[in-house]
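Two proteins were folded this term; both appear here.
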Amino acid sequence: MSQRHRFALLLTGGGARAAYQVGVLKAITRLLPRNHSLPFPIICGTSAGAINATALACFASCYHLGVRKLEWVWKNFHTQQVYASDTLPLFSYLLGNQLQHLSAKDKSRRPSSLLNNQPLRRLLKHTLDFSRIDRNLLTGHLKAISVTASSFSTNDSISFFQGVPELNSWQRSKRLGIKTQLNVEHLMASAAIPLVFPPVKINDQYFGDGSIHQLSPLSPPIHLGAEKILIVGVEQPRPDRRHQLQHYPNSATIAGHLLDTIFADTLHSDLERLYRINHTLSLLNDKQRQATQLKPVECLAINPSFNINEQAADYYANLPLGIRTLMRFMGIKPDSQSSLLSYLLFEGGFCQAMMDKGLEDGLQRLDEIRAFLEI
């Protein structure tokens, strides 16, 4: 087994914010020759991070090419490629959801949500060649790719993974790892932000965004054999504790706060737990460490150094008219304090700005990344 197979990349969720991750990944290309394979053969992703992760897995034999493909998609993004955004289809979809509750029986209802993300399914089918994952596993460029979703049927966090033969499924309290052949439905399930996008049925269960119920985000890479995990998140700096809202928070502000909590807070708790375990192991002798059946795991986390909400506000006008109208109904304006806008702003200008900021942050920490990845 390659020595590099102990390195993992973990990409968290965050809707359109995930463009930032591509910028950080681009910075890492500065450390590698053009024909170099993935520097982290274990890749794990959740929500929009799962889509980025899977794209990298498809191009594991050439890291530079994988990053370029991702960059091209994100900088050319338009909202209508992710969800129906023209005024008539948008409000027809919303009206249809309301009418079906009056007339349809439970079993005949379609999935209900704020937005219709069928365009995203078509985009993923067009741009991702899942057969490449098997080829990269066979050639040793990839050890495993994991996509996490949340089961509405069992309330468990399910990590669907595709990996080398020696990797097996796992089960812990409220979380499972299931070995399978990944496809578009796993990505759609992982990225189904609750209430915003419809749940996805896989086998006999309904799934939503992988960040829900994900009490231990570090679990998938560790179960897949990682000893060093590079984490690229999309959490903006926390506001000064002295900062106070100038008015009673409206529904849009609360919705944004809930999304921030879903996508970020469990990772902080898991990292704290990891650091405590590492410290405890450092106090034990070799025999005692072996008895615990635990191993130290190193992590390096990179998150945006800037206010994403302020960045998103600059591109509010780029949204289609139908979405801007819906946003206004929800109380979201360019100067609002809701994070919801930054999760849904799949427009090339905003995505390019996020990638540029990610590249900047990545370059500022490039020496730290180089040392961590032992390049």
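Next, the second protein.
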Amino acid sequence: MDALTLRIGEFEGPMDLLLHLIKEMKIDIYNIPMVELTHQYLSYIHSMQEMELEVASEYLLMAATLLEIKARMLLPKPKVEIDEVEVEEDPRDELVEKLMEYKQFQEGAKKLEELSFQRGMHYGKEASDLSTLQEIIPLQEGQVTTQDLWNALKKIARRNLDKMPLQANIQHETHTVEEMMDSILTKIQENPQKSIRFDKCFPSFHRHAIVTTFLAMLQLVREHKIRLVQHVPYEDIVLETFDKGGAFSE
């Protein structure tokens, strides 16, 4: 077979060169004719030496590997046992495995390069100025957010699950929002501190009672009859009346 015409320096390494030779010679990568492939590879190495170019050690190592495989192909092949069946070991198997792995990486790199080129054809939109669409209202000291209320409600729900027996007779309790509003105000007024902890406002841990009580709290805050305060971050939320002074949460 005539030697192929190759451009010096166009390959990234010996594996890249081997894949190019296999493609140009139109041979089956799973049935490599080692004599022809080794001849073409050595011709490339010699052409580099004739041009007085320094041959990288990795190219020389691959040349030695090809010569070794070529020599082993001429010797009787050792047999290995697979599923109690003896088969001849192919000296080319390791080379083929490495070539296929390198080919996969090569194709992946090419795909990433194509995606990078396509991305370069698009222009990104500059960030929009949304300052006119937002209104920043700083919370006063001790004031709570809706997230604080939601976390407190989830804490009540978890406590409900922990106290729920494995078997129980469920009795429906009916509470109106107005009744719970009066109940909350009464509990606050009866306390000398004119305040009550968030979790102490719930008469029971049934779902209906929890929801109704929570709606009653929100309505009292809306009517400016109580305020919700958290004196220390992450501690219990407290319901207070306005005669204690300070800001309120809506």
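Residues 93-120 form the longest helix (28 residues). The domain at 146-163+173-241 is CATH 1.10.10.580 (Arc Repressor Mutant, subunit A). These notes refer to the second protein only.
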